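User: I'm preparing a small set of examples for a lab meeting where we compare how different chains pack in three dimensions. I only have the primary sequence for this one, and I'd like the structure in token form so I can line it up with the others. Please keep the answer compact; I'll paste it straight into my notes.
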Amino acid sequence: MTSLILYHAVNSRGAIARWMLEELGEPYEVRILKLADGDNRKPEFLALNPMGKVPVVVHGNAVVSESAAICAYLADEFPKARLNIPVGDSRRGAYFKWLFFGAGPIEQAVTDRAFPRKDEPRRAAIGYGDFDSVIGTTANVVAKGPYLFGEHFTAADVIVGSQLRFGMMFKMIPERKEFVDYVAHLAARPALQRAQQKDQALAA
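Assistant: Understood. Below is the structure token output for the 204-residue chain.
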């Protein structure tokens, strides 16, 4: 029996963790929750994540929720996959910045764009500042390509790349050339292709 278990739902943020697990190349088990049936509100799942959200990854005795935390955890636990920037490397700070910039400012800015507030908040009152700054900052870093750290693909690319892929798919992020080129590099990765095929099979 595998020691890695992914709690997942079709058409959810669980796709991010699925992609990360495919990049690891380690065997894992998937347990599907049907959100429409309230599986995520049942006591056995709430014991894993009281927020009732997917994804959740269980690795032995460790239970990890939140996509960026899952990616960071798995990258460090399975260093042979070279999906992290290791301790002692001066780039590790920037690696964590982009991991959490993707899960924080990018997602927050896109969510605010999708569900606009009645009154525009003061720039200093929201953690990400403003949408245009987030988009411009992201475009500048991905333009260096092919990945956030040159030729070294990391868990940060899983997080930032997922936000850009979904954001452009739903027309909430502009299809700037920098984003289109970056996402095209990601789309060519066999692990992402496998993850998409498995999720498409589930949706069918």
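A couple of notes for your slides: The chain has a mean pLDDT of 95. The two ends are 27 Å apart (CA to CA).

User: Perfect, thanks.
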